[in-house]
Structures are given as structure tokens and as C-alpha cells.
Amino acid sequence: MNTRMLANLEVPVIGMGSANTFNVEDEAGLKVRHDIMDKCISSGSTFIDTSPMYGRAEKALGVAMGGRVDQFQLATKVWCSGKETGRRQIARSFELLEADHIHVFQIHNMVDWRTHLPYLEGLKDEGKIDLIGISYTYPRGFPEMMEIMKTRRIHTIQISYNVMEREAEEKMLPLAQSRGIGVIVMRPLGSGGLAKGLKRQPDLKPLREFGIETWPQALLAWVLGEPRVSVLIPSSTKPERIVENSAAGSLPPLPKELRAHISKEAQRCLAS
Hints:
The chain has helices at residues 27-43, 57-65, 83-96, 113-125, 142-149, 172-179, 193-196, 205-208, 215-224, 239-248, 256-270, and strands at 3-6, 9-12, 16-17, 47-49, 73-78, 102-107, 129-135, 156-160, 182-186, 231-232. The chain is an alpha/beta fold. Strand 1 and strand 2 (9-12) form a beta hairpin.
């Protein structure tokens, strides 16, 4: 697995998200998630993103890691308003993840960020977290994100970026690069829609010699073709998909002509 820098933290280029996939508590569901974490370890996709917003995901991750928390780089979030509520939620995340150290703590959707940021800075000073970040899914949040980025008080941003959602290229990615801010990419597969919503079959022939065997791998490789991106966090409920995704993270840098081909095929095959 290739690695990149997320601010000053070295991370695998393909990690895993847990939105909509780890909100489980039944024994069978937790067994599958344990298998998924096994695949994350064996494939090198050990950067794991979660949030209290994702239902039972933090607890399910704590169980599924099964005492192997030291083999992962954990990113979670605070998602609430109010000083004391935020502190309780942050403490609860450590408890649910069964971790005494969390690598990246983000303010989800920038909710009450002015209240939470000083407390997270204190946790960083204590060595309980490494990096502080903010997240927001849609471009309407970019102006506020950029103002926070300019304060130099955060180290990471989490944004949606994929072959069909490229708004971040105009201002967000250049600002992140100029400030040394790491970029976590959610929805690199468009919440699955870019892989499942095909109207036509993409032409993969030019990509196979490069090592790309599937369309999801092509989509992930396309995002990784942007050097200002640090790590992608696709999510899945299938252990075998973790292996498929991770293969895209072991490829050399995608040539410009192949990135252009993937973009062209996405437009052709996803358009109605």
C-alpha cells in the first residue's frame, strides 16, 4: 500500500469509512465487520474514519477491532453543540473505540466549531490526539471551511471529491496545499452511485495494463491522481471489497492520459 502525508502523519492512501456500513449491533453483523477489519489489516487499509453521527459505528468498530486498536489509525468526530455536551461526546468516542489515543479528531460538519476547537487543541497538547480537522460534505460549506483553514488552527479537512464532484479543485485543494493541510476524501465512489449507477459499461481496456481491473478501482485511482489528496475512505459491507479497493492504492501514479480516459468514461457511462 502506498502512503502519503496527512499533515505530518503518514497514512495509507486507501483507508475505510464507516458511514452507513458499521451501524450494526447484532452478532452476525459484528462478525462480518470483524472480517472487514481483518481485511483492512492484511491489505494495509488501516486508516479508519467514523463519527457519532453514524449510529452505532464507533461501538461496532471497537468490537470489530477486537483489541487490535494499535494496528489502526483512527479518525473520528465531535458532532453536537455545547461545551459540556461536546466534552462528553469526545470522551465517549475514546470509550466506544476502546482507544486511549485517536490520530485525527474532526469537527463534523463544523457544528459549533468555535466551542470544540479549543478543547481539541488541549487534547492535542496532552498527546491524546495528533491532528485536528473539520469536515463538510457539500460545496456550500467550502467558504466557511476556508475561513477556518486560514486560521492555521486545523491540520486536516474532510471533503467529498470524485470524478463527478470536482468543485474542490478550484479553491479548496490549492488552499489546503498552501497551508500544509491534509485532505481526507469521503465519497470517492459517490456513496456507491458511481459504481452502481452505470448506464453503460466503461471501457477498461486501456487501464488493465496499468493494473486496474474493475471500475471502482478506476474511480479510486482517478482520485489518487490528484496529488493534493492524502487518503480516501471508501466504505463497504463486504470484506472482499476492501481487498479490491486497496489494490488501487498499490498502483504507481496514474498517468494523465489514463485519468482523462476515466473521466471521459464516467461522463459517457453515468449520463442519462
